Amino acid sequence: TDVEDQYSAARAAQRCHDIISQPLDLKGRQLTPACSVGIAHFPTDGTTQQALLKTSDTALYEAKNLGKSRYAFYSKELTHKAEHRFKVEQCLREAIEKEQLTLAYQPQVDAASGKIISVEALSRWHHPQLGQVTPVEFIETAERIGMIPQLTEWVLKTACNQLASWNASTSHPIRLAVNISPSHFLED
User: Fold this and answer.
1) What pTM was estimated for this model as a whole?
2) Cys bridge to 38: 12, 56, 83, 183, which one at CB 3.0-4.6 A?
């Protein structure tokens, strides 16, 4: 009730950070806790407890995205970002399962002969409603929702099939490069 504006709310969040981040000794080990804080204001960001919890949770997600020990204020833009992120997640699951992504091939050309000596397979995703989704966005999303193994398998299978087709029709073999997410190597 004593928080009248964003400056006051930020000071309250900073006090929480200062208190929580005090080092702790736990059985001889020094630990430094961290926290993220999502801030929503009554009545601007919600008039019920449920609405305020929802908007502060949205702000908390943004604070976590900014890094450790941060705070963020709720804004309507954050809700739009969360809704977009959720839509991308839903559509990406379907796109990977139904193999609706495409590959583009970046060639490496021998300057002397002018022949393609290798290609790099690059994933691309154009969704009918979302439009062109950047590789940064959909690969990061695939990592977050656990779809990297399926995406990697599809990329490898599709790229290798294309490479085999190209190599069958040329007298000089072409090499292939495929970027693989580091998180994929951690999978069983």
Assistant:
1) 0.67
2) 56
